[in-house]
Design a protein that fits this description.
Blueprint lengths: L1 E5 L3 H13 L3 E6 L17 E5 L5 H8 L4 E4 L6 H11 L2 E4 L4 H8 L2 H7 L2 E3 L8 H12 L2 E13 L14 H9 L2 E5 L2 E5 L6 E5 L3 E7 L7 H4 L6 E8 L3 H10 L8 E3 L2 E3 L1 H13 L8 E13 L2 E12 L8 H18 L6 E2 L2 H4 L2 H10 L5 E2 L5 E2 L2
Helix pairs in contact: 1-11, 2-3, 3-4, 6-13
Length: 387
C-alpha cells in the first residue's frame, strides 16, 4: 500500500515515523521543502520512506502527489483540509486529517455521498483534541445506560514551565491563537451553544503534573455538541495550562494583539497578530531535548448504569521521548493520525465521512496507542461511583 502523509512538520513527521514502525507499507512524506527533516526519519529514506515535493495551496500539485495513494493523512494547516479531502475522494483514496475547525468539518460532511460512491472514508479531526478525546468520550457514552454529561480537558505543556506565560510551542502558535480567539462550541441544557474562548476558568490537581487551570477553547469537540443535541445534558472541552496563563493571554487579546485587521504603524500597514507571532514565537520555541514537553488529558463521562450513578474517567500523562526525540504532542497527535489512516487503508472504516467518535473502534484504538507507549489509564468500566 502507498500511505501518503501531507505535511512534513512535527505532527506529519511523527505520523510517518509511526507508519514506518508499524507496517511494511510504502510511506510518502510530501511537503514544499525538506530542509529540516528530523533525524528519526533519516535512516528510512530511500527504503520504505520517500519524499515528494508538493505545494498544498496548488490543486494540480496536490492532485499529482495524491494520485496512486491508498490513504492520505493530512498534517496540513486546517484551512487546507477541505480541498485536500475533496481531491483525495476524487482520486479514490481514504483521507484523514488533524482538523480543529468545526465549520470545515461541517463542509467535509457534505462529501459523504461522493465518498461512499468511491468506496472510501474521510475522517477529519483525528489528532489529540479533537480526535483522541472524542473517541474516549464516545466510549464512555456507550458504556452507560443513561449518559448525562461529558467533560474533556487536555493540554500540551512544558515539563519545566518558565514565566511569564509558562508555555512553549508544541505545534503552531498561529493555531493556538485561533483556538484562543474563536467561540467554543459546548452542549448545555441539551442544546449546542457557543461560549467565549478562555472563559469559565477552573483549577484542578493533575497527578504527577501538579496544579493546572482549564478554560474553554475552540475546536476540541468536533461535531459532538451537535450530534448529541437533546441526548445529553452537557458536554464541554477545555484546554489545560499552568495557572495564570489564561489571564495573561486574555489581557494580550484585549489589547488588540490577536487582531487580524491591519493597522498603520509609521506609514506601514501591519497585522497585529502577525507582529505578535513574529515577536513572541521565537521566545516560546524551545529545543525539546532541553525543554521537554508533556501532554495531560482527562475525559470524564457522567451518568447511570444499572440504576447507579457512575462517572467514568480516562487520564493520560505522556512525556517527551528522549530516545527518538519525538515530543509528547507529536506522539499523541501524529500517532493518532497514523492509527486512523491504517484502519482506513485496511478497510476497517465504512465508506463515507465520519468524525472519529462516529467511526473509530475505541477499544482497538486505545490498545494501539498503548502498544506505542501512549498509556491511557482508566478503571475498568465497572468504574467509579459519582461523587
Amino acid at each position: 500500500m502507498r500511505m501518503l502523509v501531507l505535511g512534513g512538520g512535527q505532527q506529519g513527521s511523527a505520523c510517518a515515523y509511526d507508519l514506518l514502525q508499524q507496517t511494511e507499507h510504502e510511506v510518502v512524506l510530501a511537503d514544499l521543502s525538506f530542509d529540516r527533516l528530523p533525524d528519526f526519519l533519516r535512516p528510512h529514506l530511500g527504503r520504505k520512506l520517500t519524499t515528494e515535493q508538493v505545494d498544498a495551496t496548488n490543486e494540480a500539485s496536490l492532485r499529482k502527489v495524491v494520485e496512486g495513494a491508498d490513504a492520505v493523512m493530512s498534517a496540513l494547516p486546517y484551512y487546507l483540509n477541505l480541498d485536500a479531502s475533496r481531491i483525495a475522494v476524487e482520486a479514490g483514496a481514504h483521507f484523514c486529517d488533524l482538523g480543529g475547525n468545526t465549520e470545515i468539518v461541517q463542509d467535509q460532511k457534505q462529501m459523504a455521498d461522493r465518498a461512499r460512491a468511491k468506496g472510501v472514508s474521510v475522517i477529519p479531526d483525528c489528532g489529540l483534541a479533537p480526535g483522541m478525546v472524542n473517541i474516549l468520550a464516545e466510549m464512555g457514552i456507550r458504556a452507560l445506560d443513561k449518559p448525562r454529561a461529558v467533560r474533556i480537558k487536555v493540554g500540551g505543556l512544558p515539563q519545566n514551565p518558565e514565566p511569564p506565560l509558562n508555555y512553549q510551542i508544541v505545534y503552531s502558535l498561529e493555531g493556538v491563537l485561533d483556538y484562543y480567539d474563536t467561540l467554543s462550541w459546548i452542549l448545555r441544557d441539551g442544546r449546542p451553544q457557543q461560549v467565549e474562548a478562555m472563559s469559565e476558568r477552573e483549577e484542578l490537581e493533575f497527578p504527577t503534573v501538579g496544579r493546572l487551570e482549564a478554560f474553554h477553547t475552540a475546536g476540541g469537540l468536533s461535531l459532538m455538541a451537535q450530534r448529541y443535541e437533546g441526548k445529553l445534558e452537557s458536554m464541554e472541552y477545555k484546554t489545560l495550562r499552568y495557572p495564570g496563563h489564561a489571564e495573561l493571554m486574555n489581557a494580550i487579546k484585549q489589547l488588540g494583539l490577536f487582531d487580524l485587521e491591519p493597522i498603520d504603524v509609521k506609514g506601514i500597514e501591519v497585522v497585529p497578530r502577525d507582529v505578535f507571532v513574529a515577536a513572541v514565537g521565537p521566545r516560546l520555541r524551545k529545543d525539546p531535548a532541553e525543554s521537554p514537553d508533556l501532554v495531560a488529558l482527562r475525559v470524564e463521562v457522567e451518568g447511570e448504569r444499572d440504576g447507579t450513578p457512575q462517572t467514568l474517567r480516562w487520564d493520560l500523562v505522556d512525556r517527551f521521548d528522549p530516545e527518538t526525540g519525538i515530543t509528547a504532542m507529536m506522539r499523541c497527535t501524529g500517532y493518532s493520525l497514523a492509527i486512523t489512516g491504517l484502519l482506513q487503508a485496511e478497510g476497517r472504516i465504512e465508506p463515507g465521512v465520519w468524525t472519529p467518535d462516529e467511526a473509530m473502534p475505541g477499544e482497538e484504538y486505545v490498545k494501539a496507542l498503548r502498544s506505542r507507549g501512549v498509556d491511557i489509564r482508566t478503571d475498568d468500566l465497572a468504574a467509579t461511583a459519582a461523587a
